[in-house]
Amino acid sequence: PSSRKMNRRGRGGLPEKVKEALKGWRGSRQATQKREGDSAAQRCRRLWPSRVGVGRQEVACRCRISVLLSQSCLPCPQDFGEDDSLYITKVTTIHMGNYTCHASGYEQLFQTHVLQVNVPPVIRVYPETQAQEPGVAASLRCHAEGIPMPRITWLKNGMDVSTQMSKQLSLLANGSELHIGSVRYEDTGAYTCIAKNEVGVDEDISSLFIEDSARKTLANILWREEGLGVGNLFYVFSDDGIIILHPVDCEIQRHLKPTEKIFMSYEEICPQGEEGAPQPCQWASAVNVRHRYIYVAQPALSRVLVVDVQAQKVLQSIGVDPLPAKLSYDKSHDQVWVLSWGNVHKSQPSLQVITEASTGQGQHLIRTPFAGMDDFFIPPTNLIINHIRFGFIFNKSDPAVHKVDLETLMLLKTIGLQRHGCLPQAMAHSHLGGYFFIQCRQDSPSVAPAPQLLIDSVTDAVVGPNGHVTGAPHTSPDGRFVVSAAATSPQLHVQEITLRGQIQTLYDLKVGRGISDVAFQRSSTQGNQYYVYASLQAEPDLLFLELSTGKTGLLRGLKEPPGPRRIVRDSGLFGQYLLTPARESLFLINGRQNALRCEVAAVKGGTTVVWVGEV
User: Fold this and answer.
1) Whole-angstrom Cα distance, residue 251 to residue 229?
2) 11 pLDDT exceeds 90?
3) Which domains are delineated in the chain?
4) How many Å separate Cα 597 from the centre of its chain?
5) CB under 8 Å to 22, separation ≥6 — which residues?
6) Average pLDDT over residues 18-47
7) What would the pLDDT profile of 482-499 be if each residue is shown by its tens digit?
8) Which of 217, 314, 445, 539 is the most exposed place for a label (fewest CB within 10 A)?
9) Which range (50-64, 181-195, 234-248) has the least confidence?
């Protein structure tokens, strides 16, 4: 803050008698725990042993040091009080980490406050309702997040199921899955998942009905329609229109041909060439909007199509700037961001925003004032963080990222990266500690890749390099793991962010030529753990990695990729299937078994894929 003088390093050092008194002293450390939403006041008290002959000095520097304690002080995130206390009015998970203060002119006299932010549990169960016939297996799943990690228990009709464990009834993955090997009529009931930690509790119910197929009750009919209806499907945008794929049956449920009409305009989904000559559809990017609609870009036609998931039809087209290339959904403000190149040389990029995206119609198209950008990043939401205020735009040839208010669409500030010589190529974010990870450009294959940079989201300051880690960063859905890899590098880096907001490198792997794409799959054997599936650059194989152990394997023979970059798409929080395309087919992977599920033939160019979960 301007009212406080920052440390003047040139001022005289400590007197010899003080240095002698400080021998063996490494500063004081104090840990503080706060519940999310509370206020926090951290006071910089007397910082040194009483034997040190230095009177109380002005507290000159309060630092937020996120990772590298050797880095210089970052600006203060909030305000000082008159008693040299740092006040944070409403703590969130981005505030967790280390805060350090010291006496003005005496850096050796310091105190570190470690702030841990505890978060009450938030859970989701799946399915909410299911109906099964006697003799088949049934699973009820519960995913919980919170800090500290919640403990999960199950009740059946109010009774603790842990007292009823048997060969037929078992708890898997630290209690996150309740499995019944062969259901009987008496297994019908309301199963309550309860997640509890030191600061709160959350619960939800998953209902199970056991009935003969001949006795179809309303619950039975609803569950079957839900399971085989318009939800839990992959939408694949291919050369030959839109393929709607059911992963359990490995069947194409519906095929929207290029000649099918758009409901509101009666245009064709993919117009034919001159004299009716068939032309392959061209797609660029697609996003899921609240499992109600899919927005997909058609660059050659300068438009975005809106697909109605419930009706399984293309509802409308929205004209946008030429060559739309990237879409992203801002769930917090119900907006779809559209980046267009303007021309084949990418020399006239523009950003437009489609508002009220989840209404499906009556949307407005807003042109943003930003110029000269060629990429943008909007942090994802998760169970704990359900509102995002800021995004970033950047130019991959300019050493800076620009912070944007997602509500007003106004530029807030520019964060310069010149000091580190970083030209940003990709970004990722974790709410644990509030880190932004930035991939920096590698100038040539012969030059060692530049390390990632870290930005602190509380202060908007560049912390410095992320150790030796290079490549594009990918964060797990819960923000705990960061996997970094690049198409041009044989290295894959795995890091974990602790519940105190500290980044730890778990291990590095050599993966051959490089990585094209990464997807996270929840572990079926360990609670709150993940597998990573990664497509190998220009190779017909898929790498799978168990994050907790570093064990790897390969799924081989997935045929020739459709292009230099092969995508991998997961199937959501409770999904067990992943999809990756080949040149003329699609491969479905069973993530619970780390095995190939099936190949769906005769699908060309399926390089744009969206998963639609529960509707």
Assistant:
1) 13
2) no
3) 16-117 (2.60.40.10), 127-215 (2.60.40.10), 228-255+511-615 (2.40.128)
4) 26
5) 14, 48, 49, 52, 108, 109
6) 69
7) 999 998 888 999 999 998
8) 445
9) 50-64
